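User: Can you predict the 3D structure for this chain?
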Amino acid sequence: PVVTCVPSYTVSVSANAFALQDGLPFGGTYSINGVEETTFNPGIQGIGNHSITYSYADNNGCSSTCTYTISVISAPTIICPADTAVCINASLFVLNDAIPFGGTYSGIGVTTNQFKAAIAGVGQHAITYTYTDPFGGSASCTFTITVNALPIVFCPNYAAVCMQDAPFLLTGGSPVGGIFSGPGVSAGIFDPAQAGLGSHSISYTYTDGNGCDNACSFALQVLSANTGITNVTAC
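Assistant: Here is the predicted structure, written as structure tokens:
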């Protein structure tokens, strides 16, 4: 009989065991390094080159063989990105820093290799990266994404001021160390004349040690010094 073997090929040591069944004509027997087998288990056979012999006997009792090689290589080596931290209000971002590229990320807050902090919630989250190479080998690693809460921010209350009042430093925001902004505000100083008549929305923004920021706002009203102006509260 004319017997045909498949070409030699390579598999990963971490690939799943598989049946030996590619010799033609069908119905013969296989041996691995001289030992008859029906399946090939890369993890058991180990790294290296393994000679596969396919033997087939026809109805006349005549037999032929062919031989090919299965090379078993190491499992893929992967590297996870460093642990990182984001704020709870961070935008959805793509996870793509693990090596080699082309694997799959999984964990709380992960959807189609993208991480959403608001879905994961505040706390530490283990993210797993799994990679499968072209030879059926797979490996995984894990890293941590910490989701930090936003700081709790409080604004001060200010009584109305007169437009002729001198510029003054805005204080009272909590936690201390934030930034005031809004009409008439420059470097934390409010100038009633520059802001002009009316009620002005002033913001206080604070950034904590994790780089997360939050803000609040309050109204600061500037009154007119001229009692002759209609529909405007005067000082």
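The two ends are 113 Å apart (CA to CA). The chain has a mean pLDDT of 96.
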